[in-house]
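Predict structure. Chain length: 112.
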Amino acid sequence: GEQIEKANCDSCLELEAMLSKGKSARMREEEYNRYVQLTQDALRMRRESRNLDRVVERQRGKLGALEEELDGMLGRMKEVERLIGDMSNLASGPLEVDCGMVDGDSGDCVLG
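Prediction complete.
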C-alpha cells in the first residue's frame, strides 16, 4: 500500500511541477505576446508620426507657396492702387477748373 501511495505522491509532485511549468510557460507566452503587441504598436505609432511629419512638411511647403503668392498679389494690388492714384491725379488735374485765376485781360477761367 505504501508503494502505491508513494507512487501517487511522486506523480502528484510531477503533475504539480508540470502544471506550474505549464502555467509559467503560458505566462511567458502571454508576456511575449504582450511584448510583441506593444512593439508592433510602437512601430505603428512611429510610422504614423513620420507620416504626420511628412504631411506637416508638405503643408508648410504649400503655406510658404501661398504666402509668396499672396505677397505677389499684394505687390500687384499696390501697383494697381498707385496706377489708379496716378490716373485719378491725371484725371482730376486738367479737369479741375479754377475760376479764381483770370487769364490776362480776357477774364476766362483757367484749367489748372
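Summary: The CA atoms of residues 46 and 56 lie 15 Å apart.
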